[in-house]
Structures are given as C-alpha cells and as structure tokens.
Amino acid sequence: TASGLALCIESITDSTAEVSKKFDLFKYDGVKAMKMGQVDYAVRCFTEALAIQEDGECMDYLAQCYMRAGQLDEAMAMLNRLAELVPDNIGVYLQMARLAFMQEDYEAMTATCAKAMEIEPESATAHLLNGQALVGQGKMIEAIAMFTKAISLNEALGDAYLHRGSLLLKMGDVQSADADADYLLSVVSDNEDVLMLKARIEHAKGKAAEAIAIYNKVIEKKDKS
C-alpha cells in the first residue's frame, strides 16, 4: 500500500541519516584526537569512518597519523588509495614523493614526481622533489638541472638553491655554490642550513678563519634557542 511504501522510505531515510551521523562522529573524533596528539585513537577513529564510507579528507588524515606513528608503509598504502579517489590532485602525489623520500625509495619518488609534473608541469615543488630523488640515485648532473628548473619556476624557492648549492659544492664547483649561498644569505641571513653551507664553502676556498667564524655563529644561535 501507499502508506506501507511511505513507511519503508522513511525507515531507509532514517537509516541513512544514522549512518551519516556515525561517520561524522568517528571522523571528527579522529580530528580532535589527532590535534591532541592521540595518534593511536585517531587511527582507530579514521579507520572506522572509512569503513562506513570513502572520504578523501579522512584518508589524508589517516595517512598523516600513520606517518606520525612511523608506519610509513601503511601511510603510503593510504595515499595510494587516496590517489585512486582523486587522481588529478597534485598535492597527494607531492605527499607521496615526500614519504618515498623518508623511505629512501628514490625510484618510486621519481615516478611519483613524474605524475605530479604531468598534472601540473609548472610545479616548482615537484621539480624540487624530483631533484632530491635524482640525488638519491646518484644522478648529480640531472639533479642540478632539476633544481635549476625549480628555481626558474619559482625564484623564491629557497630549498632549491640550498640543494643545488650543496650539490655544486660536493661536485667541486665552489664558485657556483657560493653564488647560491650568497643569494640565500641575502634573503634568510640567520638560517642555520644556509650558514652551514656558507661555512663549508669558505673552508673549500681555503678561508679557515671565515669558516670558523660562521660555525661559531651557528653554535651561538643554537645556544640561544
């Protein structure tokens, strides 16, 4: 009857609303726990939420929790699942590349960066990460080219200068490394990584006193922090 059908539809609607409410409860309990540093409980909440329905935000949060817990394989599996859900989201692939770097899986990192650059060819961050992956594979010349490309896409990308300068110094091109270090010092004069690079460059130039002065500056900075 019409009344019976109406009751059936009402029952289904109530059931759907209940499931949705349960999902929201698990998800937002997980977010709260993650913010409080209760990673294990957050993992349980997000896992329960995802068992109810697929949700990209939940997957991202769960991957972050796995990373905090040092469960890198589980984090990568979750990011792969997220990539299937949102295949054109470059942020997912950049996160996967960073995670592959932590795992020292440089070939996987290169492949992931390639996917990111396919989605967004002008992504300076993707080129930067690809450069790091190439360094991990011992492909120094290609890595320098990749860092240089990253800089051409975003001249303010300090990490690209830092990585390129360090690599140039390692390869014996002290003058070019010094140019990168001097640029960074003009932008972030008190950055410890930049100061250490400059100190190594001064040492390579045979300027021991200048190198020691910079090292001392870094030590003083650490003592104050």
Task: Give the oligomeric state of the chains in this entry, treating copies of one chain as homo and distinct chains as hetero.
Answer: single chain
- By secondary-structure content and strand pairing, the structural class works out as mainly alpha
Total beta-strand segments? 0
Major sheet characteristics: none
| Distance between the amino and carboxyl termini | 76 Å
Order of helices and strands: HHHHHHHHHHHH
Strand content: under 5%
Mean pLDDT: 91
Helix content: over 70%
Counted by DSSP, the helix tally is 12
Descriptive overview:
The chain is mainly α and 225 residues long. The chain is 83% helix and 0% strand. The protein is built from 12 helices and no strands. It has helices spanning 2-35, 39-52, 56-68, 72-85, 90-102, 106-119, 124-136, 140-153, 158-170, 174-187, 192-204, 208-224.
Write the layout of secondary structure elements.
Elements: H1 2-35, H2 39-52, H3 56-68, H4 72-85, H5 90-102, H6 106-119, H7 124-136, H8 140-153, H9 158-170, H10 174-187, H11 192-204, H12 208-224
